[in-house]
Specification:
The complex is a heterodimer of chains A (about 260) and B (about 280). Chain A is α/β, with parallel strands linked by helices and about 260 residues long. Chain A folds into 2 domains: about 1-90 and about 245-255, 2-Layer Sandwich (Nucleotidyltransferase, domain 5), CATH 3.30.420; about 95-235, ATPase, nucleotide binding domain (Nucleotidyltransferase, domain 5). Chain A has helices at about 35-50, 80-90, 130-140, 145-150, 165-180, 185-205, 220-230, 245-250; strands at about 5-10, 15-20, 25-30, 60-65, 75, 95-100, 105-110, 115-125, 210-215, 235. Chain A is globular and about 60 Å long. In chain B, the strands form 2 sheets. Chain B has a 5-stranded mixed sheet with strand order 3-2-1-4-5. In chain B, strands 8-7-6-9 form a 4-stranded mixed sheet, with helices on both faces. The chains are: A alpha/beta (about 260), B alpha/beta (about 280). At the A-B interface, helix 5 of A face helix 5 of B.
Chain lengths: ~260, ~280
């Protein structure tokens, strides 16, 4: 039995997946904090505990993400783009377009039938198209990030934001709340603003079906639904969208291991 | 030609009123507040008080700015681009390019013979506007008015690689935690804003002299950072916030004088000076 672990150190969260024979045994997500090396140990430990294992049981470690270099004990590392692609291809072999919505970066990735990357674009410049926007709004609504998706689905009159900028939208949201707008409607409006930016990214690589969303932002069901309706396709989402790249990293383990 | 002309410039943050007779007789700057229409008349009242005038003494009132349609006692609304150009031209006749840095937007205006010859604007992205400075001032717990002098005192401006206000704020906090000094960080932020504004204004064919107006012009650190980009000194009027309101007053004066010459009567607003209501 060969156990492998894939670790994805993101700017917001660190993720780890433990696999055996290319099957997921356990996964973990923790905030990265300021020290990526420490985050790597912390998330690996959490994932291993979930599988009832320890680092001594691991035959192969692969790292990816913004802070991949900090994973000193990795046998291999790869770009998070390639790991997202590998992870999603493993879960949804029919997918040709992947949208990754991270805390700070959003990416659109085109894949071929073998899961190889044919094109990608990323937005790292503007908070309006990233998970950060969701964090800002959740904060002013005094809500937990994990609850906003569900609530947004109940919106009946989405707020129309006049801006795509997270900073201006935050002020606009505060005004709308003072005027009596409901949190669900605020969230639906934010999703529209974000979807607009993300759709631009997808257009640049060219949308090809099937389409999947990954990353922390994909846990927001309202955002995914809005994206789907703006793109005109059903957007597939893995059960644990935050760990797709960690899974892809784990899948880098040499075959036969 | 005697008579008093008033200009009301309702910006996203501040409302400015200028009353002009033979020269500027009063200028007042007050907060706009969440509902533009409710506070404009208060700023006008204060300006009238300073000028020792009553509302009835005003010959013509022009409103401009973001909230100009919400000034029921104004006789005319004119775009802020036109008013800024006119106001700056009257204060600094040699200015051919004006950079206005407001609370929520920034603009570049070309002036030819006192008339608008081109303009660019950013009102989509908080970076490059006064908002960016507010966010950073908050994050560093420094009063907004102190940013400029702190920036000038910095021995070595930090390099801020993020252009987005949100991410730049994160970066500033991270660098601060890493031991960078507050003045260096503030200087770095000013350079980032200056680079962004310079990039925007460069879309116009920049001609000297270049003037800076709006709240951002009161930040000496930002002006210096812009000067470093341009490579020459920039002109700043003594009260950079009132150029729009001054321009509005002058537009009103010109319109009135033109009407007199043609023997026409200008239509005046029917409402007196009072707080705006739902109906007007």
């Amino acid at each position: 039995m060969a156990y492998v672990i894939g670790i994805d150190i993101g700017s917001g969260f660190s993720k780890a997946v433990v696999c055996e024979n290319r099957v997921v045994l356990s996964s973990a997500v923790v905030p990265s904090g300021g020290n990526y090396g420490e985050a790597a140990s912390r998330v690996a430990k959490a994932a291993l505990e979930g599988a009832g294992l320890s680092m001594a049981d691991i035959s192969f470690t692969a790292a990816t993400g913004y802070g991949a270099e900090a994973v000193a004990f990795a046998d291999r590392s790869a770009t998070d783009i390639s790991c997202h692609a590998a992870g999603i291809h493993h879960l949804f072999p029919s997918v040709r377009t992947v949208i990754d919505i991270g805390a700070q970066f959003s990416k659109a990735i085109s894949l071929d039938g073998k899961g190889r990357i044919t094109n990608f674009v990323l937005n790292e410049k503007c908070a309006g198209g990233s998970g950060k926007f969701l964090q800002l709004i959740a904060r002013i609504l005094h809500m937990k990030l994990e609850d906003i998706g569900e609530l947004s689905l109940t919106a009946t009159r989405p707020v129309q934001f006049t801006t795509g900028c997270a900073v201006f939208a935050e002020s606009e949201a505060v005004s709308r709340i003072a005027e009596g707008a409901l949190p669900a409607d605020i969230l639906a409006g934010v999703h529209m603003a974000m979807a607009s930016k993300i759709v631009n990214l997808v257009t640049r690589v060219g949308l090809a079906r099937d389409c999947a969303a990954t990353g922390g932002g994909a846990k927001d069901r309202g955002l995914v639904r809005t994206l789907g309706s703006e793109l005109g396709v059903e957007v597939l989402v893995p059960e644990e969208p935050q760990v797709s790249a960690a899974l892809g990293a784990a899948l880098l383990a040499p075959v036969g291991l | 030609m005697s008579g008093y002309f008033a200009g009301v410039d309702i910006g996203s943050s501040m409302t400015k009123v200028v009353i002009s007779g033979e020269g500027v007789v009063a200028s007042v700057i007050g907060p706009t507040g969440p509902e533009h229409r409710k506070l404009a008349h208060k700023v006008m009242e204060e300006a009238l008080r300073q000028a020792h005038l009553g509302f009835g003494d005003l010959t013509y009132v022009v409103a401009t700015g973001y909230g100009r349609i919400n000034v029921p006692f104004a006789d005319r609304q004119v775009t802020e681009i036109t008013c800024h150009a006119k106001g700056t031209h009257s204060l600094l006749p040699s200015a051919r390019t004006v950079i206005d840095i407001g609370g929520q937007d920034s603009k570049g205006i070309k002036i030819n013979d006192g008339k608008v010859a081109g303009f660019v604007m950013n009102d989509k992205c908080a970076a490059g506007t006064g908002r960016f400075l507010e966010v950073i001032a908050d994050a560093l717990a420094v009063p907004l008015e102190k940013l400029g002098e702190l920036a000038l005192s910095a021995p070595r401006p930090a390099v801020i690689s993020n252009t987005c206000t949100v991410f730049a704020e994160q970066e500033v906090i991270a660098q601060l935690a890493g031991g960078e000094s507050v003045p260096n960080l503030i200087a770095g932020i000013h350079e980032a804003i200056a680079a962004r504004i310079f990039g925007m204004v460069s879309k116009l064919k920049i001609e000297r002299e270049v003037a800076v107006t709006g709240g951002g012009a009161k930040n000496i650190g930002l002006v210096r950072a812009l000067e470093a980009r341009f490579g020459y000194p920039l002109l700043v009027p003594p009260e950079p916030l009132i150029t729009g309101a001054l321009g509005a007053a002058l537009v009103g004066k010109e319109a009135y004088e033109r009407a007199i010459r043609r023997g026409e009567t200008l239509e005046r607003s029917k409402t007196g000076l009072r707080e705006a209501t739902f109906f007007s």
